[in-house]
Design brief:
The complex is a heterotetramer of chains A (435), B (448), C (185) and D (271).
Chain A (H helix, E strand, L loop, with lengths): L22 H4 L13 H4 L20 H6 L7 E5 L11 E7 L2 E8 L7 H6 L3 H7 L8 H15 L6 H29 L5 H20 L8 E2 L2 E2 L5 H12 L3 H10 L3 H7 L7 H6 L5 H5 L6 H4 L20 H24 L19 E9 L2 E9 L5 E7 L1 H7 L1 H4 L5 H11 L3 H5 L1
Antiparallel strand pairs in A: 1-2, 2-3, 4-5, 6-7, 7-8
Helix pairs in contact in A: 5-6, 7-8, 7-15, 7-18, 8-9, 8-10, 15-18
Chain C lengths: L2 H11 L3 E8 L2 E6 L4 H10 L7 E9 L3 E9 L6 E10 L4 E3 L8 H12 L2 E3 L45 H5 L13
Parallel strand pairs in C: 2-5, 6-7
Antiparallel strand pairs in C: 1-2, 3-4, 4-5
Chain D lengths: L6 H15 L39 H5 L5 E6 L5 E5 L6 H12 L17 H9 L7 H12 L4 H11 L3 H10 L11 E5 L2 H5 L2 H12 L13 E5 L10 E4 L2 E4 L5 H9 L5
Parallel strand pairs in D: 3-4
Antiparallel strand pairs in D: 1-2, 3-5, 5-6
Helix pairs in contact in D: 4-5, 9-10
Classes of the chains: A alpha+beta (435), B mainly alpha (448), C alpha/beta (185), D alpha+beta (271).
């Protein structure tokens, strides 16, 4: 049987401008392939023609890694988890190589949500960028705005009023709580628990309505501005917030009682997908996933960027680095965030909420890197200005990409059922990954 | 010919219809009456001659028909209970409190296109849902709903039940293999493995009961616990009851053991490629299974149709034999209807407010009267006939367990496959063996 | 900004710098040749007074004349972000050494850079397109890749059609191609 | 995880059982409306009056107020001017096909959108440099642009707004305010005023004649080479009815002379 990689497809997978030319030679020396249970021609019955089945992948493989992944040994089969699957967050596709239910290897296929936001931002001026980056991490979009705004403010030396900073911290932490609530719900859902997702959506809905009263939108708040925020705190927001603070995180606590001690839940997560300290650092994992493996790296403390130095909160860390730790870290962070919100409400200064800026922004040529701590890790923006009113280069760094990159290293050896536990414990958001 | 055509041509449409229908109707009526008069008695004799066969056919049909409303009720129950448990309302638009929801589900499933994927083994693919459904329906035959109300009182009832339970898995396996989909395949194999490992503790846990009752007939088991509450085997065999409950959960593929259609892992398991009524069969079979499992737990460990409290005053109401009134019915019925209607209508008219006019209040009064009469008749039946009483108790217990299953589904996450197997082999099997050993010892010591 | 860090950097990787250490706000920036990336990264990662062990970001930049690969590092020893610019990669055959020998996570970042800019990272074991489809033939984030219709300015300036040749020589004398070039500072 | 096996599960079951009797969080929408925040942005949409005319006067104040310039103008409103849209051009039907065509690289045949065609902006830059990028000189700038190109290409206006930094709204307002500035390529458009006076003076008959002569229907591209027949948005004050304009300049056309005039304009021989 001809090796499947060399399917007769020409003119594909080869960039016109400089590409990996040296790969071409590599394909000659590739391991000899056996007929496997996955081979369509084995399971085939008469009336179905062989042309029904595409070779996998349907293009000549491009790297040794890809060729070696898409070569099946005996008893192995591919399973496409996604892009349409109940428990892939967003439109993610994992090509899983299984033997039985044991995972041999994984190849994540990204890009189903790619919109080219960086290019769009480079062609739209500094005011536009803020609402262009909104739908990137659609679950916690304020943080993406925050990173962009931080970078721009460094770029054009803007001094943000303290009240604006406090409002940013307040809304940001609220959104962090809602994002974590959604994480817990979906995590439980991927493990087969029906109920927690609805409890967490109750929590999230309160917060999101609150933020709608503040920012004017439920999901894609286009709220932060360069040098401040769009609108000041209003009575409706404050009253809603007051109601919520009286029972802050109640639903999340109820989930904790529902899951944290549940034997089934704990057994499914303890010791699953263990990511030790070195591995986490090598993979550039950030956020709760990194802290769950014992590295106390949180941009809010490691590199203070707003009024966070004035606030009193601590960075929860855990040593195990397994799914359970990653789940529990989130709960601790929710409690910390509630503390932060409380402090923000108590010492919220008066004053303006916007720095005075020209209508048309033309920063001096320069470079700036702004990073903030989102719910999933460090969100960074590296922007270059060439003196025009559009950023010359607008680079978005999304934590979910690197968090998801650990999946091919974490999954092998586990069962198919653990895929959902591990992937959703890493909490990726495909909108941010695919840019 | 021509005058006839002319006559036909002159008739209007209604007349033509009448001309066709009326003679047919007349002929049909005459024929029916004649058939009843002439063939009726011999037919009845024929039926009476081979009664067991007739009884079996009637019972099978009744059970087959009974599964549909049962499944509907269970589906609606699950929707509602789970919804309330996660702070939703659940279906509340179709019918009163959304009660017609599952009916609409049924229509939806019927009206959907059911297609088979290319490369599927069509015959097996089509056969699989039927096998599953029939297997789960056939198990209903041996369940004693009430004294005398049992499909077929087999003396190997439990054995029959477990055999049929095995068949259910066969259907799932067929579905998983024939769908030509890896998810389905995984689901089917999972269900096979799960069934194999959980049949054993399930069966072994019941053996203790069999030893105590010295019979395998479900009816016999119920009769053995018909003394008082403490004759129920939940008190004599608590461990067995626990094991049976857990194993039965796995047997019915319910959360936390719903490996076969673990929706977040393998998309819908064996049912991934199914749609339309083929899927509907699986859907029904699942809920019928839940009902059967609960019914069996009730039968074996919770005294079946026996009441927790005995009814000393359950004398028979022979004086109220309907025929004892004779022609008086002609007077009684209208009188009761008339005065009863007024009796219930008057308070409505008086206190119902302005919106209740004369006729509307009379109508409501009539409805209330009907409800009251139905209640009276039911109460009379409950007191008079012990099968009504038994049925009520049986259903009450069974639905309690059904709701427990739903409750578990609302709460618990899913167990992983290997943990599932490990639990079965490492814990349930030894425990059931231990239970068996202890029971055997006790039987030898006490009952000799 | 951290003056001490500047001194340490000059001490450690002084010979690789092709421009003086540049500090602004809370960022320290060094500019090196692409060839010397592995040594510099290794030094910064391992040296006991550096310990830049968290790779914050790996970005590629197309300045219109040359390509750059920009690394952002974080270390517990300083309060600054360290930015390393590997400068002067030719646009015609852009090649740069891979950082995967230190940070495995850089693999996908480099895949992204390759996908968007066509920079070939030698030593990356799995350098293929990550977002774009495998049969895609051009590099969208290059400056000579022109948008079909640019949302913010439409109608008008943005309407040119897609994927002109990636040849600066052709584009140089094409007035309609608004190819922007960064002032190389 | 507790030491008593099953205790954790029992706790969970107890919680769900308690929640079973708690009040529900569902908002039954049609019966009970959710309380929507005052600031809630919701969906942007244009309002129409009871006659079905769009209420938007295209005053561009929204476009100027919008902090991220997400409001954009395109298409035509009831007064024959640009129509208000939001967001990227690709979202709107007429623009979508436009940009699709442009993406295909072929010239856009639709005469309505010739003004969107890309232009060689070098001349614009020269003009702007001459006026020292001064926003106050906008009228002069626009006039010289029209002298250069013969009309005002939208691309040029965009270029002006990019380079000089003046809001596009301002430039566009200026361009639409002065009547001698035009967006159509010269030698193209015949417009008939349909105001009451003109109608009394027989404008309708004239326009039907012109339509018959020039082409099938008002607004479409007529059969005669490159002629467009339009309704005039509003009567030019002082011009005498019936009012027919050729590229904005009023022409004296009588009901009877309309056909001959059309032929002459279309460059055909007068029979």
């Amino acid at each position: 049987m001809p090796p499947r990689q060399n399917a007769p497809r020409s003119s594909t997978g080869r960039p016109s401008a400089p590409g990996p030319k040296m790969r071409a030679g590599a394909r000659a020396a590739e391991p000899e392939r056996f007929a496997s249970a996955d081979d369509p021609r084995v399971m085939l019955d008469r009336e179905v023609g062989a042309d029904l089945f595409e070779p996998i992948p349907p293009y000549p493989t491009r790297t040794e890694r890809e060729g070696e992944f898409y070569t099946l040994r005996d008893g192995e089969m591919f399973l496409n988890v996604g892009p349409h699957h109940p428990s892939t967050h967003g439109v993610m596709r994992l090509v899983v190589k299984l033997s039985g239910e044991q995972i041999v290897d994984v190849d994540p296929v990204l890009g189903y949500l790619h919109r080219g936001v960086e290019k769009i931002c480079e062609n739209s001026d500094y005011y536009h960028v803020i609402d262009q980056v909104d739908p990137l991490e659609y679950i916690s979009s304020l943080f993406q705005e925050w990173a962009a705004v931080l970078s721009f403010e460094k770029l054009m030396d803007v001094q943000v009023p303290r009240r604006a900073e406090y409002i940013r911290v307040l809304s940001g932490e609220l959104l962090r709580i809602s994002s974590h609530a959604m994480f817990m719900g979906f995590f439980a859902l991927d493990l087969g628990g029906l109920t927690p997702i609805l409890y967490s959506f109750i929590e999230r809905d309160e917060i999101v309505e609150m933020l709608a009263a503040l920012t004017g939108a439920r999901m894609l708040f286009n709220y932060f501005r360069i040098g401040g925020v769009n609108g000041d705190l209003n009575h409706e927001f404050m009253s809603r917030l007051g109601d919520w603070m009286s029972r802050a995180g109640r639903e999340i606590e109820s989930q904790a009682t529902l899951l944290n001690e549940n034997e089934i839940f704990v057994r499914r997560n303890r010791g699953v997908g263990v990511m030790d300290r070195d591995m986490a650092l090598r993979y550039g994992v950030t956020g709760g996933n990194l802290r769950a493996s014992g590295v106390p790296f949180d941009v809010r403390r490691a590199h203070p960027y707003s009024v966070y130095p004035e606030l009193d909160f601590n960075i929860p860390t855990r040593e195990e680095g397994d799914c359970l730790a990653r789940y529990l870290i989130r709960i601790d962070e929710v409690r910390e965030s509630i503390k932060i919100i409380d402090q923000c409400l108590h010492n919220m200064p008066d004053g303006p909420i916007m720095a005075r800026l020209p209508r048309l922004l033309r920063p001096r040529p320069g470079r700036a890197w702004g990073a903030c701590e989102g719910p999933r890790g460090m969100l960074g923006v590296y922007s270059i200005s060439d003196g025009s009113d559009q950023p010359f280069r607008f680079r978005i760094h999304d934590p979910s990409l690197l968090n998801l990159e650990t999946v091919p290293a974490l999954l092998p050896g586990h069962l198919l059922a653990d895929t959902m536990a591990i992937v959703s414990s890493l909490d990726p958001v495909m909108g941010g990954i695919d840019k | 010919m021509k005058p006839l055509a002319a006559f036909w041509g002159r008739r209007s449409l209604n007349e033509r219809v009448a001309l066709i229908v009326v003679p047919i109707a007349v002929v049909a009526a005459v024929v029916t009456v004649l058939a009843i008069v002439l063939l009726g008695p011999p037919f009845l004799d024929f039926l009476g001659a081979n009664l067991p066969l007739v009884r079996f056919v009637v019972a099978a049909t009744a059970i087959l028909v009974m599964t549909i409303p049962t499944a509907f009720i269970l589906i609606y129950l699950e929707l509602k209970v789970i919804a309330r448990m996660n702070l939703r309302i659940g279906p509340n638009r179709i019918g009163p409190w959304g009660a017609a929801m599952s009916l609409v589900h049924g229509f939806k499933v019927l009206s959907k296109e059911d297609f088979a994927p290319t490369g599927a083994d069509i015959t097996v693919f089509t056969l699989a849902p039927v096998v599953t459904y029939m297997a789960s329906v056939m198990t209903l035959l041996v369940i004693p709903f009430a004294p005398g109300l049992i499909g077929q009182d087999l003396n190997i009832g439990l054995l029959y039940f477990f055999a049929m339970g095995g068949l259910t898995v066969l259907g799932l396996l067929m579905a998983g293999w024939s769908s030509f989909n890896k998810y389905s395949l995984l689901g089917g194999l999972r269900s096979a493995a799960q069934a194999i490992s959980y049949e054993i503790p399930l069966t072994l846990s019941v053996v203790g009961v069999i030893m105590l009752t010295r019979t395998m007939s479900t009816n016999g088991i119920v009769l053995a616990q018909s003394g008082s509450v403490f004759d129920w085997f939940i008190f004599k065999q608590p461990l067995a009851a626990l094991i049976f409950f857990i194993a039965a959960t796995a047997e019915a593929n319910r959360t936390p053991f719903d490996m076969t259609e673990a929706d977040s892992e393998i998309v819908a398991g064996f049912a991934t490629e199914y749609s339309g009524m083929r899927f509907g069969f699986f859907f029904f079979a699942e809920y019928v299974n839940v009902f059967i499992v609960s019914a069996l737990i009730t039968t074996i460990f919770f005294g079946g149709w026996t009441a927790p409290l005995n009814w000393p005053w359950a004398y028979n109401l022979d004086w109220f034999h309907p025929l004892s009134f004779g022609l008086a019915w002609i007077a009684i019925v209208p009188t009761v209807l008339l005065f009863g209607t007024y009796f219930f209508a008057i308070p409505v008219r008086l206190f119902g407010g302005r919106s209740w006019g004369l006729w509307s209040s009379l109508g409501l009064g009539f409805l209330i009267l009907l409800v009251a009469l139905a209640g009276l008749v039911g109460l009379a039946g409950f007191i008079a006939f012990d099968w009504v009483r038994g049925l009520c108790w049986f259903m009450a217990k069974t639905y309690a367990f059904v709701i427990t299953f739903v409750w578990m589904r609302a709460t618990l996450p899913r167990v992983r496959v290997d943990q599932l197997m490990g639990f079965a082999w490492k814990w349930l099997l030894p425990a059931s063996l231990l239970n068996l050993f202890v029971t055997a010892t006790a039987v030898i010591i006490l009952y000799r | 900004m951290d003056r001490n860090l500047k001194a340490r950097l000059e001490a450690r990787v002084g010979e690789y710098l092709r421009a003086p250490v540049y500090q602004r706000h809370d960022e320290t920036e060094i500019r090196i040749d692409p060839g010397s990336v592995p040594e510099v990264l290794r030094t910064l990662h391992d040296a006991l007074d550096m310990r830049f062990e968290i790779l914050a970001d790996l970005a590629a930049v197309d300045t219109g004349e040359v390509m750059q690969v920009v690394y952002h590092l974080w270390s517990p020893m300083t309060s600054d972000w360290l930015r390393i610019i590997a400068d002067g990669i030719s646009r015609d055959d852009p090649r740069a050494p891979s950082a995967t020998f230190l940070w495995t996570g850089a693999e996908w970042l480099e895949r992204e850079a390759y996908d968007m800019f066509g920079i070939v990272f030698e030593g990356n074991r799995d350098l293929r397109r990550i977002f774009m489809p495998p049969d895609y033939t051009s590099f969208p984030l290059r400056k000579d890749f022109l948008l079909p219709d640019d949302a913010s300015r439409s109608p008008g300036a943005g309407v040119r059609h897609m994927e002109k040749a990636h040849d600066p020589a052709v584009l140089a004398d094409d007035p309609a191609s608004g190819i922007r070039r960064a002032p190389l500072s | 995880m507790s030491f008593v096996p099953g205790l954790g599960m029992a706790k969970g079951m107890a919680l769900t059982l308690r929640r079973f009797f708690k009040p529900k969080a569902t908002i039954q929408y049609p019966e009970t409306a959710p309380d929507i925040a005052v600031r809630f942005r919701g969906r942007l949409q244009l309002l129409y009056d009871e006659l079905g005319n769009i209420k938007c006067e295209t005053c561009f104040q929204c476009a100027q107020a919008c902090p991220v310039e997400c409001i954009d103008m395109g298409g035509f409103d009831t007064r024959g001017r640009f129509h208000v849209h939001w967001g990227a051009a690709e979202q709107y039907a007429e623009r979508r096909e436009e940009s699709a065509l442009r993406r295909s690289g072929r010239p856009v045949p639709d005469a309505e959108y010739t003004q969107f065609d890309p232009i060689d902006a070098a001349a614009v830059d020269g003009i702007l440099a001459k006026y020292d990028y001064d926003q106050k000189e906008m009228l002069a700038i626009l006039e010289s642009i029209q002298d250069t190109y013969g009309y005002l290409p939208v691309a040029a206006l965009k270029r002006v707004s990019q380079v000089s930094g003046a809001p596009y709204a301002l430039i566009y307002g200026t361009a639409t305010y002065y009547r001698h500035l035009r967006f159509e390529k010269p030698g193209r458009t015949v417009a008939v005023c349909m105001c009451t006076t003109c109608l009394v003076a027989g404008a309708h008959r004239i326009s039907s004649t012109l339509a018959r002569e020039l082409g099938p229907d008002t607004g479409r591209q007529p059969a005669a080479a490159g002629m467009t027949l339009k309704k005039l948005p509003s009567h030019i004050p002082g011009a005498r009815s019936p009012l027919v304009t050729l590229d904005g300049e009023p022409h004296a056309v009588s009901q009877h002379g309309a056909a001959a005039w059309a032929r002459t304009v279309a460059g055909r021989s007068v029979s």
